[in-house]
Design goal:
- The chain contains 15 helices and nine strands.
- With 398 residues, it is of the alpha/beta class.
- Strand 8, helix 11 and strand 9 form a beta-alpha-beta unit.
- Helix 1 packs parallel to helix 3 and helix 4 packs parallel to helix 5.
- The termini are far apart.
- It binds iron/sulfur cluster.
Length: 398
């Protein structure tokens, strides 16, 4: 054999040895990754089965797995869905059912809103079309007449919507607007039977009690984002005053609906931080909004969240808040498009239907048809009413 052939054989041998070593290393790395992934999921499954919310550390470990393995998304959705069913079985978040108990998830509840007073807000939230600091095309008008409120309530009730949110722009309600809203509430409830939610901004204790007495079921007030990121999105007031409003509503006996907007530029760590604060505040319901960048606001050029990330937000919040309502609100269509059919697989149990505050939502027809198509809620309007009051996750919690 001449030297040329020997050299080549040696080269081939070395190459194949290197390939074997590389394959072994990659098998080992794969094995380590899969083992680590399994242990993260097993650990979380135990928390879900025991009725506990996922801890901050578990949530971080889950995010690391999802970062390395896009396929793990399906496992995340399965865990989120299991969490919803697990709590449907328990009937009450305070008394965990046996670990084996799994039930069909209850029908999701629906909310509709009316933008009852729009624009000219003295605050400067960077995402908001209604701030007077931003030049947007958002409508500007004072508090609408009672008849307009009533007409909206009828439309929502006829479409089987569970809650109507009366939303006004501004730091907080004027005395005059507040009195009018309380008086209108009694008439709306009497004539339509719809459950009312108020979203009037910063609220004192006395006002919270007055809303409860006027017949409101819920108070909605978002934290918007985490404590550490809040100064980046609002310079005219701090997050503490928002937290105090949430606490006031809770003490007054209102069902508290408080969450935030995702896609403002916050990090995953800050999303988890907000989830922890909501745990501290013991809220009943968490609205999940996705930024829909509004022309004229400082965030007009922000990129919208990719659908996968939006679904991850829903699932993570479900796992961290197993016994609370997770309701998907603004930005659903903009961010998720037709992927919004997956919100319930990701752990949501409520959805805002119809238009949002200053942007168009999807029409009732499309939303109701989607719920029926998914088999999660009957189109029989009479059957809609009160379903979530009996079986909703958060309601069982309240
Ligand atoms: S989010 Fe509320 S407080 Fe902030 S600018 Fe808009 S209306 Fe005002």
């Amino acid at each position: 054999m001449d030297g040329f052939v020997v050299d080549n054989l040696r080269g081939i041998f070395l190459m194949s040895l290197l390939c074997s070593v590389a394959a072994a290393i990659s098998r080992k790395v794969f094995h380590i990754n899969i083992t680590r992934q399994l242990s993260v999921f097993e650990n979380i499954l135990e928390s879900v089965k025991s009725g506990k919310g996922v801890t901050l550390e578990q949530a971080r470990a889950l995010l690391a797995v999802l970062d390395n393995n896009p396929d793990a998304m399906l496992d995340l959705l399965a865990l989120a869905r299991l969490t919803v069913s697990r709590f449907a079985a328990s009937g009450a978040a305070t008394a965990a059912a046996p670990a084996s108990a799994i039930a069909a998830a209850p029908a999701p509840f629906t909310c509709g809103i009316i933008n009852a007073k729009s624009g000219r807000c003295a605050e400067n939230c960077s995402f908001c079309a209604q701030s007077r600091y931003h030049a947007t095309a958002s409508p500007v008008y004072p508090l609408v007449d009672d008849e307009v409120l009533l007409e909206r309530a009828r439309l929502l009730a006829e479409n089987g919507v569970d809650y109507m949110g009366i939303v006004i722009s501004g730091t907080g309600p004027s005395d005059k607007d507040f009195e009018r809203i309380c008086a209108a509430a009694q008439r709306i409830i009497g004539e339509t039977g719809i459950k009312l939610c108020a979203s009037l901004g910063i609220l004192g204790m006395e006002q919270a009690v007055a809303l409860k007495q006027a017949g409101f079921t819920s108070y909605h007030h978002n934290l918007e984002t985490s404590r550490s990121f809040y100064p980046e999105i609002c310079g005219t007031h701090g997050v503490e005053i928002r937290e105090q409003t949430v606490a006031n509503a809770r003490v007054a006996g209102l069902r508290v609906c408080s969450g935030g907007i995702f896609g403002l530029g916050e990090s995953w760590e800050q999303r988890l931080e907000m989830a922890e604060t909501l745990r501290e505040l013991n809220v009943d319901s968490i609205p999940v909004n996705f930024l829909n960048p509004i022309p004229g606001t400082p965030l007009e050029n922000a990129a919208t969240l990719p659908p996968r990330e939006a679904l991850m937000v829903i699932a993570l919040f479900r796992l961290m808040h197993p016994g609370r309502d997770i309701v998907i609100c603004g930005g659903r269509g903009k961010v998720l498009g037709d992927w919004d059919k997956l919100i319930f697989s990701a752990g949501a149990n409520g959805m805002m239907v119809g238009d949002y505050l200053t942007t168009k939502g999807s029409p009732f027809e499309r939303d109701l048809a989607m719920l029926e198509e998914l088999g999660v809620r009957s189109r029989d309007v009479a059957g809609f009413r009160g379903v979530s009051a009996q079986a909703g996750i958060g309601d069982a919690n309240a």
